[in-house]
Protein: Trans-aconitate 2-methyltransferase
Amino acid sequence: MWDPKKYLDFADHRARPFFELIARIDAEKPRRVVDLGCGPGNLTGVLADRWPGAHLDALDSSPEMVQEAKQRGIAARVLDVHDWQPDPETDVVVCNAVLQWVPDHLALLAEWLPALPAGAWFAMQVPGNFDAPSHREIRALATEPRWRSELAEIALRSADAVPTPAEYATVLAVDDIAVDVWETTYLQRLSGPDPVLEWVTGTALRPIRAALDDEDWREFRTELAPRLRVAYPARSDGTTWFPFRRIFAVANKPSA
Structure:
């Protein structure tokens, strides 16, 4: 279960990759724009403003996120990415911080790109920090005897959630499709008590939260907090540097 409000606690940091991603889309008058994994809809309106003449589809697998988007005036609907297929007029697809949750997403990309019309754009961004100290500490704790039976499989599943940039380029660059793939590490300055713990609570810890009852969840967070403080020590001014790597890919099909 997603918690939209927790996710939005760091809205500025989470939004920056979205803007840098869509800046590389050079579509002028798309007929249909798809926000595939729209989340709470806080960025979907940006797509509507950029392409006001397009029909906008906002989709997400989380009912909680879709409800939050609707409260923002977005006509979002619940749909799993496995059930999505491009409409013949889908000229732009934006998939922002979604596919890391989909183990078979390389296979989906291989299906989606050929189905898009000539001249279409597909833009995606995923976190590439699964080997960062934050995620290593989560996996280490989850595989200790206290938690192993409930959490080890969940935690270890995330270790290879995202392929390399070269693997994305290989899947996308077929049939003369122009592909731009890059990665960026943002040095995010977080504030507040245990800011890295609060950050991962909104994303990486979501599957673990779903597997635990309230008491065990509080205990897991209590054990994880000091580990993250050591991995990401607070500065003298109370803020914490949190490096965050992300992988981007933009593909443009040749025009007819």
About this structure: Confidence is low (pLDDT under 50) at residues 1-10.
